[in-house]
Amino acid sequence: MKQVKIMILCLFALVSMAGMAQEADDTGYIVKVGEMAPDFTVKLTDGKSVTLSELRGKVVMLQFTASWCGVCRKEMPFIEKDIWLKNKSNPDFMLIGIDRDEPLDKVIAFGKSTGVTYPLGLDPGADIFAKYALRKAGITRNVLIDRDGRIVFLTRLYNPEEFSGLVAKIDQLLAK
Fold first, then answer.
1. Are 96 and 88 in contact, with CB atoms under 8 Å apart?
2. DSSP string, the chain
3. What is the pLDDT of residues 5-47, one digit of tens each?
4. Which of 4, 13, 79, 149 lies at a 20 to 30 A Cα distance from 115?
5. Other Cβ atoms closer than 10 A to 29
6. Distances in whole angstroms, Cα of residue 128 to Cα of each of 121, 131, 134
């Protein structure tokens, strides 16, 4: 009888854990537009740390990236030109590139090779990435967060029309 109770408890625990597993959409995101952005602290390549929740009141764009990602390399000059250079002096805007699983020296070299000047942060172990998407999902993604900390726009891969929508949404949020 005792063994049956233990087996039932184990089965219940497994079922409960399965229910807690986060569901991903067809792009691998586990977050959705309208939800609060999961909080994290990221160390930037200049040694400073940034905590997302401390940026409330600003429009924040997260760009998940890696040096080995060809699509990221294609997209980064557009982010630099059409988003960062246009908005970097706006105190109500923050852009952070979050580099997945690479050491500091590689991330610094990656930033230089792509010509980006926006802040790049380190995500060893992809723990920040895993708050937003499945670890096994593709890397190229952008998350736009409004002043209240809610996700308002998600992109996956680089698509010029979708990217234009992202730029327009940033403009709209900053105009408020």
1. no
2. -HHHHHHHHHHHHHHHHHHHSPP--TTSB-S-TTSBPPP-EEEETTS-EEEGGGGTTSEEEEEEE-TT-HHHHHHHHHIIIIIIHHHTT-TTEEEEEEEES--HHHHHHHHHHHT--S-EEEEGGGTTHHHHB-TTS-S-EEEEE-TTSBEEEEEES--HHHHHHHHHHHHHHHH-
3. 444 443 444 433 333 346 887 889 999 999 999 999 999 999 9
4. 149
5. 21
6. 10, 5, 11
- Model's pTM, two decimal places? 0.86
Distance CA 24, CA 37 (A): 15
Single-letter code of the amino acid located at 67 = S
Task: Residue 59: name the closest of 162, 146, 152 by CA.
Answer: 146
Beta bridge partners of 49: 43
Q: What is the DSSP string of 111-152?
A: HHHHT--S-EEEEGGGTTHHHHB-TTS-S-EEEEE-TTSBEE
